[in-house]
Amino acid sequence: MKLIDIYIQEVTRRLPEKSRDDIALELRSTIEDMLPEGYTEQDVKDALTELGDPAALAREYRDWPQHLIGPRYFEGYMTLLKLGLSFGAAIALIAYLAQQAAGFTGEEPFLRLLPAIMIGAAGSVIEAAMHVFFWTTLSFAIIERVDPIKDGQLCHQWSPDDLKDLPDRAKERKISKIEVYGGIFWTAVWAAGYFYADHLVGIYENKGNGLEFVTPIFNQDVLQLFWPVILVIIGMELALSLLKLYTAKWTIKLAAFNTLLQVTATIVLIIMMNHSSFFDSGFIVYMDKVFDYGWERWLINGSIFLFFLGAAYNIYDGFRKAKH
Amino acid sequence: MSTLLNSLMTELRRGTLTLAVLSQLQKPQYGYSLVRSLEEAGITIEQSTLYPLLRRLEKQQLVTSYWDTTESRPRKYYSLSSLGMEVYQQLKEEWLHNSKQLHDMLIEGGNEDETD
């Protein structure tokens, strides 16, 4: 009798509270049905053997999913996870660098701090990745259990016409994921460089005890004047990366959007560089010592020229790949 | 090989279990009496599969249940609901139709093998 009690407990303790009593009662009456009159302990053991492992029986009773994320949501989960991880890492990196830059006193040379900064950055990226992983997984596990599209009833019926809206993933037109995520990462890096240029971008010199930050190159106040339009460019770059991820190939629309981005960035750069106090005064003093008068014009025109060439090639390359 | 064969056979049988159980529930049965009547008909079903299956069928409203407490021990009786009866008839027709086709195909296929 004791064995039966424990067996039933082992089954029901794995089941939701509300169905426990009923299943326990039914199991007991079933087991008793299986036993002969005046049964022995061996008869009980035989009957329980026939019912099998209580854990397995409980598993059969439960209609709660026995997996965290099922096949229906797994693909979406992986896509969102990858996207979230790359964005999360980029944002964590910007936030960390910004925090470092804000607390940067200039007493210690930047390059000597570099190893510590890199370790700290890696740490915050890993922390962000863990957050993204946890919350994405949790959300999908909940969706799996709430299951708004049970048995695919609300699912859109597939038809061959759907294929028309999808990109052809032929190899030579494909944009690699590395390019997309690399693009997002690059946006994060230059954005951090822009907002903290007075701490990060400058002349470094070795004065015996490692590299020292001598002077910033740019006048942060002037750079800061342009923040709204820089934010627009950051947004456009991120949008371009997402579009690349979605279409997976260069299209005419994508190339046109890229053109708009490149032209905007070039115009902003030209306006910014031609501002009368674009360079930091310390940088001007430093350069005057090294170069003859007129270096400033040369540097500005040269930079604009190189940027222009890069943008032009970038635009051309987009259309070439789209038409290919 | 034999484990693969076993899992394929289990898979083959699994789909027919519901039909077998529904066929026996045209009159009310309790768990163990159902096991016995299935066994008599030559159908083996793990008891650990059968009892949870009955609860699922009840949840799907194909069967209804009631507790009979008049006898020496209380027993839970299951029987087909009207929806269950309807579904059973359709499943039965489908099965008879399919199994005849499959039977014909397998027998013909067998003959071809022999003549080759």
Task: Report what the structure shows.
The complex is a heterodimer of chains A (324) and B (116). Chain A is mainly α and 324 residues long. Helices cover 70% and strands 3% of the residues of chain A. Chain A has helices at residues 2-12, 17-34, 41-51, 54-61, 71-102, 110-146, 177-195, 197-200, 220-225, 227-247, 252-273, 281-290, 295-323, and strands at 202-206, 211-216. Chain A starts with a helix and ends with a helix. Chain B has a single domain (2-115), classed as Orthogonal Bundle (Arc Repressor Mutant, subunit A), CATH 1.10.10. In chain B, strands 1-3-2 form a three-stranded antiparallel β-sheet. The longest helix of chain B is centred in the C-terminal third of the chain and has 34 residues, at 82-115. Chain B is globular. In chain B, 19% of the residues are buried.
Give a brief outline of the structure:
The complex is a heterodimer of chains A (324) and B (116). Chain A is mainly α.
How is the secondary structure organized here?
The complex is a heterodimer of chains A (324) and B (116).
Chain A: H1 2-12, H2 17-34, H3 41-51, H4 54-61, H5 71-102, H6 110-146, H7 177-195, H8 197-200, E1 202-206, E2 211-216, H9 220-225, H10 227-247, H11 252-273, H12 281-290, H13 295-323
Antiparallel strand pairs in A: 1-2
Helix pairs in contact in A: 1-2, 1-4, 5-6, 5-7, 7-10, 10-11, 11-13
Chain B: H1 2-24, E1 29-30, H2 31-40, H3 47-59, E2 63-68, E3 75-80, H4 82-115
Antiparallel strand pairs in B: 1-3, 2-3
